């Protein structure tokens, strides 16, 4: 993942939400004139990759959300699965429309990493299934979140910007829902499968260099905080 994406991921906050669906009105109802202008211009490589990544996410999160709705051992897991599947069906409709508009070729085959996760979840049952579902989907959402933030901040295409805004809302919601199950392993789930994100394995994102950069940022922030505290804690000099 690009460094600025990782820094955005480090600072992300996850407010509590329910399991209601998210409106996609903004995705397909952009100004007609903007749509025409955008459709006449080829997408940047990063914008095209963005559509491909969302497509990969839809290919496995719809069926796994449905599976959680069926196999989850708690009502919370079943509700979260239902909400995730419903939202990704809407995302699938939107990304298919955009890919057709911009001439981006999408695949119908899940990525290699998510295919393994799907097999793992299908083979699991009981509490083990609940934990794997929460961990794997939270890891995937956490790494894709940085790419979406990067697209939203940097794309020059108004239609892609609108879609990234909607996708950002969806991913933030899903991360929070998965965390609300109480089953996400903070040692494995948040940054699981953190290798190198690319077209074949878009859910993987954090390289060793990114992790080291995160440590440096954290150290600098800590030092700055200590300096401020010392400054304001020092006895005032007599006037």
Structure notes:
The protein has 9 helices and no strands. It has 239 residues and is mostly helical. It has a single domain, classed as Ferritin (Up-down Bundle). Helix 4 runs parallel beside helix 6. The N terminus is likely disordered.
Please supply descriptive tags for the structure shown above.
239 residues; mainly alpha; Ferritin; 69% helix; elongated; disordered N terminus
Write a brief caption for the model:
This protein is mostly helical and 239 residues long. The protein is built from nine helices and no strands. It starts with a helix and ends in a 6-residue tail after the last helix.
CATH architectural name: Up-down Bundle
- What characterizes the major β-sheet? none
Over all CA atoms, what is the radius of gyration? 20 Å
Number of strands: 0
Mean pLDDT: 76
For the record, the count of structural domains works out to 1
What is the top-level CATH class? Mainly Alpha
CATH superfamily: Ferritin, core subunit, four-helix bundle
**Structural class based on helices, strands and sheet pairing:** mainly alpha
How are helices and strands ordered from N to C?
HHHHHHHHH
Give the termini distance in whole angstroms: 53 Å
Which geometry do the CA atoms define?
elongated
Instruction: Give the amount of beta strand, in percent.
Output: under 5%
CATH topology: Ferritin
SS summary, helix count:
9
Low-confidence stretches: 1-17, 25-33, 35-40, 192-196, 204-218
Helix share, percent: 55-70%
